[in-house]
Structures are given as structure tokens and as C-alpha cells.
Amino acid sequence: MQTQTIRSVDRPDAAVPEGRGLDPRSQAAEVRREEPGAVRPVPAIAPIDLGPVHVATPVVLSPMAGVTNWPFRVLCESYGPDGLYVAEMITARALVGRNPKAFRLCRFAPGERVRSLQLYGVNPAIVEQAAQMVVDGHMADHVDLNFGCPVPKVTRRGGGSAMPWKLDLFRDLVSRVVGVCRPAGIPVTAKIRVGIDHDHETFLDAGRIAQDAGCAAVTLHARTTAEYYGGHSDWERIAQLVDELDIPVIGNGDIWGAQDALEMVRETHCAGVAIGRGCQGRPWLFSDIKHAFAGDDTRLDPDLGQVSQIIMRHARMLVEFFDGDERMAVHDMRKHIAWYLKGFPVGGSTRKAFMECEGLDDMQRELNRLDPELRLPERLHDAPRGRVRYAKKVHLPYGWLDSRSTTHEQRETLFGDDPMDAGY
To answer: How far apart are CA 23 and CA 388, in angstroms?
Structure first.
């Protein structure tokens, strides 16, 4: 398939363009925050109902590929409020093709209160089939649709954050999935981005279409595809979408600590917050956010001994997730251990040793060598995590930006057999 690219300039420290909102953690916002005599009550965050699914505290674990399988969701939910803890993205074509990994990713632990599952696809008919499988198999209580993924292998096929540019395709896909799920009492939500870039913004159109098609809520990651995970998310766009829609809007982007969650709700009046990279290696962040919205200043500050216990709990659950394959579980833990240890002064040789572990005994041996009394420096408690100052060229199907609707030829090309779309 021919593709076109849009160049994005990696300038995370560039000035905010005129008319764009300030990031709440910027210097100007800090000055405003600290005005003498200013009273800053805890912003209200009310329960929301997504059809029959009652969300007492709309705090959401965002689906993250390779991260939010059921062991990580269970950890986060054990600390957090009665929110939504969403499974990682399931490729619709892989599910329809009965790919074993797709079915593994659809598993939920018995204790998960709401089984939230995210579907991704480009062909509305295939995503509709996948949704029907979810309904017929009683596989989930809530379905989220992925229109926020910015990675090239997704956008070059017109999927993820590229799709809302094509209004007809976006409307068709959302309507079909809602049409399948609504009779079964399964609410459908959509996750979107601001647009492809700031010359090709889509979030207002996408929000209106999702609402009209019957979505119960929309989550907005306040970055464009071109911005990837770089710079600051523009929370003013979340506020714009809140003003535009009648359904709940969940804000997403740059929530690194509990105070960020409060600030997002305070400044945008969004109905809830979605946490992505901020909880990588910090599942207890959901406890901090739960306390914050309750007006409680309690924050968790686990020492390295406590973090080690969490690591082993996580690893043992991953062994179960991988059907007893300890080696696969420990290999999967490598990225998590890097996140858990981020900021702790443990040294490069220690980190390297963890990357060479092949079993739980190896992991426990390395954990036993750590100083259990070490604590994270205070300045790093709410520091950004994961991919931060990074932007990429946007890869799109050839001629994608020429119009807001798809041609017959484009659909034929997009919907052709793609082995990558059926596998993992």
C-alpha cells in the first residue's frame, strides 16, 4: 500500500501557539495556582452511567498495548476506586480469525468488577463481526473503540487516530458496533485524539459523530497524531469537547500524579480522567487519585522493599496469564521492572541483571540484593514517565488527506487482506 507522511517537528519546548491553552504544569499556570488568598476546593467528580454500567468514580486505566493485560489491571484496581480498567487493544481481524493471542488478551480475572475491552480495526464489517463475537460470547461488559493510536503501523492503514479524518468510515464503524452492542446492554465508548496535526483536527467532528451514533462517552487524548507523546497535551481541547457534547468526556494526557488529575477536572470540567503512562511502574497512583478526589492528602510512597513485593506479585500473576510459562512471564516483566525501578538509585549493572532473568527465582534473587529501605527522591514522585519528549512522522494511506470521505478504491485497498492485521 502506498503511504504519505506528514513531518512533525520534535520541539517539545516550543512556545504554545497563540490561542492554545496552557498546560496546567507550566510556569504560568503555577503562578496562577499560587495567587495569594486563592481558595482551590477539590473539584467535583460525579459518578457516571455508561448504559447499565455504573462507574462510581470515573477514573480510567487507559488501554496500553503490551501493558494492560489482566495482571496489571488487577494491580491497579486493587489500589484504585471503582473506575474502569480497560484491557489492551484487541485487533478485530485477529479476534475474528480466532488468533490465540487475541483470545488471551480478552481474558479477565474473576475479581474484575467491570470487564472493559478495547477493539481496533479499519474495516467496519470486520469490527462489527468482532463486536458480535464479544456479545455472543459474553466476553465484556463495556467496549471501547480505538481511534487514538498514533503508531505508524496502525495509521498507515487508516486506523487509530487517522480514521476520524474520514467521516464516512468513522461513522460507519462506530454505528455498526453500537448497533451490535446496544441491544445486549453493552455500552460503547470511543477514544480519540485532537487530530492528525493542527491543520487537520478531527476531535470535534469525531465527538459529535460518536455521540449521534450512540456512544456512551468519549475519551480525548489531548495531542495530535503528529505530536505522538511529545511536549504537553493541550487540555483546552478537552474543555472544548466538554462544551460541545452532552455525553461524558474523559480527559487523557499528562496525568503523572494525583494533583494533575485534580487540575484536569478543575480546568476542563471533564467527567473523568484516564491514566496511561503515568501508572507504568506505579499502579498505586490510582490510590493517590482516589484519595485526592475524596479530599484526602494521603499519598503512597513505597520503599524499594515494598516495590519488590509488588513486582513479585505482578510476576506471579503473569505466570498465570501465560498459562504457566514462567520464562515468558519473566520476559514480559522486563519492561515493567524498568518502570518500577525508574528513579531509584540502583545502578546500571542491577538493571542489566534483571534484564537477564529467566525465571521467578532469578527475579527474587536480584530483588533480594536491593536495599529495601531506598525511597524514590521526592522530586521524582510525579515526574513524567514512559515516552515523553518524542514525536514522529505521521504515516497515512496515500491521498488520505485529499478529502474527508473515502473513495471506493481507497476502501478496496484498506480492506484487503493484511496478515499483520490478523496477527500479533
So the answer is: 14
Say if CB 98 and CB 139 are below 8 A apart.
Answer: no
Catalytic center residues: 149
Pairing verdict, β 188-195 and 84-85: unpaired
Walking along the chain (424 residues) 10 residues at a time, the average pLDDT comes out as: 50 36 44 49 90 96 96 97 95 95 94 96 96 97 97 93 97 98 98 97 98 98 93 94 98 96 97 96 96 93 97 98 97 96 92 95 97 89 68 87 91 71 54
User: What cell was used for 48?
Assistant: 457516571
The 272-275 sheet, strands edge to edge: 84-85, 59-61, 272-275, 249-252, 217-224, 188-195, 142-147, 116-120, 90-91
- Report the residue count for the chain: 424
The amino acid present at 201, given as its one-letter code, is: E
Instruction: Give the tens place of pLDDT for each residue, 178-192.
Output: 999 999 999 999 999
Burial class (CB in 10 A: 0-12, 13-18, 19+), 230: buried
**Alpha-carbon span 112 to 67, nearest angstrom:** 16
C-alpha cell at 244: 460541545
Write out the three cell numbers for 329: 512471564
Half-sphere exposure of 409 (CA within 13 A, CB side): 6
**The pTM is what?**
0.89
CA distance 280 to 94: 26
Contact 49, 56 (CB under 8 A): no
